[in-house]
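User: Fold this; tokens only.

Assistant: Input:
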Amino acid sequence: MTTETTNTGSAYGFDNSTPDAADQVDLLAGILDQHTFGVLEGLGLPIGARCADLGAGRGTVALWLAEQVGPDGHVLVIDTDPRHVPAHPRITVRTGDVAALKLEPDSFDVIHERLLLMHVARREEVVQRQAAALKPGGALVVSDWATDHLEDMFAAGPDDIRQLFLTFQHAFVRSLEQGSGMDSTWARRVPDVMASAGLVDITSVTFNQLWRGGEPGMLLHASNSRQKQDLLRAAGMTDAQLDQLREAMNNPDVMARSWPMHTTVGFRPAA
């Protein structure tokens, strides 16, 4: 694995250097990898392919791609803080801001990004640049959560926990929207943005799960509550409420649906 550094500048919703970050990226990989691998496998990735994994988190998708492309293939990882990405001989890691970086045109068979563009400024322009970086016939794969229908999430549990959960969700999402410019509706807008960028044969699938207390998805909520604790306090949540929420996220009698993840795939027209 080789490592490069590029200047960064954009704010991002989470910090990979915090004590909870390693657990967070592990939880996200456990929740989402099988969905992601299934989508990528459906592309029929050629041996020797050149891929990019942007905002790689734990690096599990980059590792999966590196194993698929064979000895002559390559995976470029770009992340503002790629400390959690493990080494692999076919992976090059670049520290940088995806919103500012210009990828080499006509270079990639697949560009993948998960839970990235919803947090990135000028995301429409970023998609335009990424579309140009694809080889003819190459695929752009964008996965993001839609976080604007929070009332639909809670599935089972006491009424006071339902209200507490919704209070937390609204405060959490609002803090990301105001603090780092997260777009809660972006995931559903991706097909239109891809079409405007000249991509074709666009498809989209929605991934949703029911989570029970103690399972990775509910533990992710607890992790988020710790990472954004100061902002949640500023939004009016008390320490007692946060403690009660975290306890509930470990209670198997409490269930909630995940935010719906929209995974959209678009292809650069073949030459």
